[in-house]
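Re: arginine structure - here you go.
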Amino acid sequence: MKLWGGRFEAGPAALFERYSGSLHFDKKLFEADVIGSKAFANALESVGILTVDERNRIHAAFDEMLAEAASPGYFDADDEDIHTFVIRKLGESVGELSEKIHTGRSRNEQVAADFRHWMKGTIRAVQARLESLMGSLLRLAEREFGALLPGYTHLRRAQAVLFSHYLLAYFEMFHRDWERLQQAYERTDVSPYGCGALAGSGFPFDRDAMAADLGFSGVAANSLDAVSDRDFALDFLYAASVAMLHASRMAEDWILYSSEEFGFLEMGDEVTTGSSLMPQKRNPDALELLRGKTGRVCGNLQSLMMTLKGLPMSYNRDLQEDKEGVFDTAAQAADSLEVLTLCVDTARIRPEAMERAAEEGWVSAAALAEMLSRSGVSFHRAHQIVGGIVLASVKQGKKPAEWTLDELREFAPELDERARAALVPRNALENHRLPGGTASDSVRDAIAAAKSRLERLEQASSEQEE
Ligand code: ARG
């Protein structure tokens, strides 16, 4: 079925019908479309186009449709789009009365309203996945509190940090991602209803009441903008892309950390696969897929930006291309975050391997130089002295702990018994006591703070749902 046709002599080519039809993907907006149409029926009743009885019959038919939609093959139809499908279904149930439902309404405002409505629920779902992930990171940070990780820069051992401190770094990223999604939610939470095809409506609808009926917090201020704006979708695509980038960075870390070369952790059987040829293999496919899907999700953002870049005011059919990428991003991001949570929950951490790597490396070199500079040696000279010790170590194949104080003093007579203590990675770590640093007390405080921050997000989410 089509919602137009009077002004045409011939119908569209079959090829073009296939090309332009969107039901196969915009059926995802079914529920939003029906809920929106129920609200619109209320609006039509309030301006006298529908009687109360007619509105009630329409509502009952819509409720029945919502209940039936799960049945197999429900969406096997050749309607142009989901909006057409819903009106045809309404007609099958209430007959001619259905012809009134589109009075003073355009699919341009309708599709924008449906998309926003759907997106609000989707953003909440992604936020909920982030909350679970943050919760798992915090649980692991508490469980493995004390495990010492060689922190890296340039993927070279740099300075010792607590493994929990490392986990909290990802907590921060996902926390910001949640906030970015929240901002996207607030910009999405605006009703286009009452904007018509582009110019507003000649019927005396109460736009605020329609918005409230649909659960929107406000109304779009300009009708032209309302039917052609998709930057709320860009906001979501951007926020989801950044969350995926963060998840992908963590995936990359854990692919490395779980390798034989690092051995810092072991991925659970739940998220690894074997090889069809090499019996010994245990591959981190879940994390690799996540890393791969990140490219695709970032591509969806780029794709919608390109779709929007040259659009003349106001609605253009190009806008139908806004949906598939957004649907894909929503599904991939939600699944990826859930998979990463499962990876965190099922990993076995190997603190002894982390600590060994830290002890073999020179992660305390800076601590030794700083110690020297505290006893009056300029930092530049201290840096030179410790560099000399490291060079000698490398040449002699000697670990930091193997240097005696007498040997160290040959490099700098200023060194005393505290030098050997400074070379112990854990001591160096405990020196970094500032807020945001990696000393045990700082990290304990940070975990406690992170827990209450997460509780606040969860609280905000549940209030939004009400
Ligand atoms: N299916 C269209 C979309 O997704 C909505 C229909 C509006 N069509 C139109 N020719 N004005 O944007």
